Amino acid sequence: MTLPVKDRFDLPEGMIYLDGNSLGPLPKGVGAAVQKVIADEWGQQLIKGWNVCDWMDQPARVGNMVGRLIGAQDGSVVMGDTLSIKVFQALAAGLEMRPDRRVILSDSGNFPSDLYMAEGLVALKNAGFELRVADPEDVADAINDEIAVVMLTEVDYRTGRMHDMGAITGLAHAAGAVMVWDLAHSAGAVEVDVAASNCEFAVGCTYKYLNGGPGAPAFIYVRPDLAQTATPALSGWLGHAAPFAFDPSYTPAPSVERMRVGTPPVLQLAALEQAMTAWDGITMAEVSQASLRLSERFIAEVEARCPQLILLSPRDGSVRGSQVSFGFDHGYAAMQALIARGVIGDFRAPNVMRFGFTPLYLDEGDVLAAVDILQNVLDNRRWDAPEYRAVSRVT
Amino acid sequence: MTLPVKDRFDLPEGMIYLDGNSLGPLPKGVGAAVQKVIADEWGQQLIKGWNVCDWMDQPARVGNMVGRLIGAQDGSVVMGDTLSIKVFQALAAGLEMRPDRRVILSDSGNFPSDLYMAEGLVALKNAGFELRVADPEDVADAINDEIAVVMLTEVDYRTGRMHDMGAITGLAHAAGAVMVWDLAHSAGAVEVDVAASNCEFAVGCTYKYLNGGPGAPAFIYVRPDLAQTATPALSGWLGHAAPFAFDPSYTPAPSVERMRVGTPPVLQLAALEQAMTAWDGITMAEVSQASLRLSERFIAEVEARCPQLILLSPRDGSVRGSQVSFGFDHGYAAMQALIARGVIGDFRAPNVMRFGFTPLYLDEGDVLAAVDILQNVLDNRRWDAPEYRAVSRVT
Q1: Which fold has domain A6-27+283-388?
Q2: What percent of chain B has pLDDT over 90?
Q3: Could you tell me the CA-to-CA distances from B59 to A215, B76, B263, B267, B272 in Å, in that order?
Q4: Is the CB of B15 inside 8 Å of chain A's CB atoms?
Q5: Which of residues 37-56 of A touch B (CB under 8 A)?
Q6: What is the pLDDT of chain B when averaged over all its residues?
C-alpha cells in the first residue's frame, strides 16, 4: 500500500530520501505560507499582526494539529522553544510533583541532549538530586520508590528499538513516579496514544517526521488533569495567565499554555502549520502500517543482497520505530558514498547506518532503488575512496 | 540629519511606524532570503543543509553581527531561544559564580518576564534563594554584599528611562556581585558598549530595533574571560563541546557557544541575518544621535500642540532610550484612534502612550506628520468613539 500523498512534497529529482527521521523534506505550500506571513502579515500589519493575524494563538492552534497525531485531546499540547527546553520543563515539573524524592531515571538509549538537560537541572537544584541512567533493557527493573521522574525516549534514535509506553508508564505509576516520554522519533512515525498511556508529560520535535523544517519548534503535552497545577519552571511571560497585564509577579495560565515561555517563532510556526496539512485525510494507523511494510521490505532485501551489513534494529516490527539501522565497520564512508549517489540516510557513531521509512513521500519503488544502490556501493567497495573519509556533521 | 537607509525597508504606504521598539518593520530582501533557505537549502539539500548551507554556524555568525552593535568582540555573542530563556541562563550562571550568596536583585522597571524567569529560577533552586525587587531609583543603594547577581534592563520598556550601565556595573562589582544587563530596548536603539561596562552577561531580543521579525531569536553575551567557565544551566546538546559525538554526559563548549541549547531556528535566523544588513555602513553613534534629534523634536511639538499629554519619559535625552512616552487618561482609546489613522505606536497600562523613534526608517517629516494626526485626535476627541474602547493585545 502506498499512501496517496507523495505529491504533497517537493523532493529533489533523483533523490531517495531515507532521512526523514532527522529532517523531513519540504512540503508543498510551505514557501508560499511563510512568504505570506513575511510580506502580507509582518510587512503590512507589523505590530498589529499579533492580533489580526492570530500569531499569538499559533502555539496552541498548531499544538492541536500535533496533538491529533499522538492521541492528545485538543488543548493539551502547546508549541514552542526546542525539545531540550521542553524536556527541562517536563522534568522540573515532575520533580516538583514528588517533593520527597530526588532521582530522575533515564536510560542510555535516550538522546544525549535529554540526559544533558537532566544533568543541568540536577546541578541547578543541588541538594542531593541525581540523574540515574540504566541500560534500556534494565530500565523497568530500575524503577523503584526512590524515583521521582522516569524520562525515556520511546524510539531509540540509533536503532529504532521501542519502549512499551503503556507498560513502563504503569510501572512508573505503580512506584509513585511521574512519567515523561520523549516522542522525537515517534510523533508522525508510529502510532502513539499519550492519553491511553496515562503519562503525565510528553515532549517532541517537529522537524523530523512532522516536516516542519530546520529549527521547527518543539511541543509539550501535559496530561489534562495537571494543566492547572504543573509548575512551568521556565516561567516566561507568555505562560502567564495574563501576559499583557504586565503584572510584577508570575501567575501561570490555567492551561497547558503555562508551558509557553517567550515570544513564539512566528515564521517557523507558519512553516510547521502548513507542513501539518500534509497529514490531512490520513491516519497514523495507515502511516505506521505503511512504514512497517517498507521497513520489512528493506530489511529483507538488504539481508538477501548485502551480507556485509548486520541488522542492529529489532527484527520484530512491533518493537521497532520507522527507522532501520545496520552496522558496518566502514559505515561512515559507505553512507557518504550512498549520499553521493542520491540515497540519503545518515550515520551514527560508531558504525550505525541509519535509514528512515516515511511513507508520506516514500514508496516501495524507492526502497528497491535504494537497495540497488546500496548493493552497488558495497559490492564494489565504492566507499573505499578518499572523498568519503572526511568526518562531517549530520544531525 | 536623516540616515540614508530608509529605502532598505518595506513600509506600508501611508503608515508612520513609531513602534519599532515593539516589532521592527520588514527590511527589504528578507522575504527572498528566507525563500532561498526554504526552496534552495531545505528543499534541495534537506539534511545536508546543516553542513553545506552552514546552518549550524548561523547562531555564532549572526551573533557577531549583533555583537558589533553592542560593543562586543567577535565570538562573545551567540543567538538562540527567546530572551526569557537567555535571562534564565545568565542568572543561573551568575548564581553559580557566587555560591556563598543567595539574592538576585532587580528593579520594578524591569520587563515582567525577566522577573518571572528569576522567580522560576529561585523556586527551582529552593534553599533560601531570593529575588529582591527595588524601585529603579533605589536599586543602586540596594546593591550590597548579600547580592549574588544584579539583573537590570538598561532602558525601561514603559518610559525609556535609562540606567547607567557602567556606574551600576561598577557598584555591583564593588559589592562582589555579578552583573546581567537586558538590552531588549538598547540593542540597535542606543549606543551600548558591553565590553566597556565590564558586565559579565548581557542578553536581548532582535525583533525590536534589529528588525528580525516576529519570533526572531534572542542573543546572549558572555564576557570573554568567562567563556570557558560560565555554567550554561540549560545544557543542551548544541552547547556541548562535541555535539555530534553523542557523548552520554555533558561537556560545555569552550566558548560562548556553551550557551546554545537546542536546534537553531534556521528560518528565523535567516530572516534576522538578512535584516542585519540594514545596518551596513552606519554606526550606532549616528543612529543614536538621529534618534535623539527625532525624539526631541517630537517632545517639543507634542508639548507645544498637545497639552492634554504629560511627558512620562525623562526630559534629559542622555538618560532616555529611543522611545518617548506620554501619559493620558484615555491613552488606550487615543492610541487606537491614532493607529486607525496610520500612526502606529502602542499603549502600556495604566495610561502610557509609547512612541519609538527609529531613524533607520523614520525622518523628521514622519515625526511632524505624526504630531499633526495626534493633535487632530486629541483636539477633536477622536478617541471618544466606541470602536476604540475594546481592549486588545499588543506586545
Answers
A1: Aspartate Aminotransferase, domain 1 (3.90.1150)
A2: 94
A3: 12, 11, 10, 12, 11
A4: yes
A5: 37-39, 42-44, 46-51, 55-56
A6: 96
84-113 in B: which are within 8 Å (CB) of A?
A: 84-85, 88, 92, 108, 111-113
- pLDDT tens for each residue of A276-332: 999 999 999 999 999 999 999 999 999 999 999 999 999 999 999 999 999 999 999
Mutation target to probe the A interface, by most A beta carbons within 10 A, among B46, B57, B111, B158 is B46
Q: Give ranges for CATH 3.90.1150.10 in chain A.
A: 6-27+283-388
CATH class of B54-279: alpha beta
Asked whether the beta carbons of residue A237 and residue B116 sit closer than 8 angstroms, the reply is yes
Instruction: State ipTM.
Output: 0.97
Residues of chain A with CATH 3.40.640.10: 54-279
What's the pLDDT tens digit per position in B84-123? 999 999 999 999 999 999 999 999 999 999 999 999 999 9
Q: How far is B170 from chain A (nearest CA, A)?
A: 27
- Measured between beta carbons, the chain B residues lying within 8 angstroms of A348 are 246
pLDDT tens digit sequence for B228-283: 999 999 999 999 999 999 999 999 999 999 999 999 999 999 999 999 999 999 99
* Residue pair A216/A206 in contact by the 8 Å Cβ criterion: yes
Interchain contact, B214 vs A55, CB within 8 Å = yes
Q: Which of B86, B101, B208, B258 is catalytic?
A: B208
